[in-house]
Amino acid sequence: MIPRQLAATLGNTIKPGRVWMLFGARRVGKTQLIQNYLTTVQEEAWYQGHGEDRDLAELLESRSASRYRQMFSAYDGFFLDEAQSVQNAGAALKLLVDLFPKLKVIVTGSSAFRLDQMLGQPLTGRRAVHYLHPVTVSEIAAWKDPLAPKAQLPDLLNYGSYPEVLQIGDPRERQAYLRQLVEDYLFQDILVFEQLRNAQKLRDLATMVAHQIGSELSLNELANSLQLNRSTIERYLDLLEKSFVIFRVGGFSRNLRKEVSKTQRYYFVDNGIRNAVINQFQPINQRADRGALWENFFINERRRFNAYHNTGTQSYFWRTYDQQEIDLIEVSPDGQLAAFECKWQNKKHKVPGAWPKAYPETPVQFAHPENFTQFLL
């Protein structure tokens, strides 16, 4: 079993009278994480249900105090998996914790655009939100040994780190799993819940983003290529982000005249998902896009590292109008900066001249396949 970093905090953060929320893409291990936790509290009685169970969803949507008492009064805890399928789930959960202040409540969800209703006014001050990512370098090291991430790097760049993918040996089976995951889960959540008419356009947009990792996206160019208006492109990108397919990184600036700050770069939450979208799984040493895959991998891993260590760090890229750039700028809550350049080859690299002039107190660290674990473990 792959150890997950969030498991160590579950017992201390799940409290009566509050809703413990776990979000993340489908198949990243949310259900397994909670079920593993429940085996450690077998002295407690837990009701376990799924949001796609229409009988349970109808009960919750009724917001009937008498029905809630009849169903849940005998339990110490309530676990609702894939809560986005329940309409007005936030109001239902608020009533539940109001009626049963000693009840522990855990919910999971994989569609943030449906979970907005849970994060709003109904549960203000009554929730704790956590995110589960695909398996991290640190988790792989704990699962196997500290040298394993470096040894597995070609596979991580090509097939990503979804839990089931890591446990499949045959490359063809990995590819088939990832393609099915993309079609059956990641896109379907958006298509079903949002009732989009242009399903192919959504797939085409994801493909275009996949080919532009590490580059600022021109929404006007995307709109022209896909024959959609700019506002639709913005909406689709937002849906892909809220369904945990991609994430955005904005431009960093402290208002210096030459710094670009109003554009966005997009990355995939998992390299395997990115490669499944474009259906390319050639060996890394044969790929022209290995630099982009490496950048996606490292920036993603730093994002996961900061999330699990609760650093409060924000991620940006840095570029000037004369095309000097740094791949990753991290800003801590106290304003401290860290700068990283993602390089495929381990050799001496030059720092863009404008960076040390503007930020002399922040050296640029070069992350490459020979040293990356020092930044992630």
TrEMBL record:
Coiled coil: none annotated. Residues 18-140 form the AAA domain. Keywords: ATP-binding, Nucleotide-binding. It comes from the Bacteria. It holds the Pfam family DUF4143. InterPro entries: AAA_14, DUF4143, P-loop_NTPase, WH_DNA-bd_sf. Residues 188-344 form the DUF4143 domain. GO terms for molecular function: ATP binding. This is ATP-binding protein.
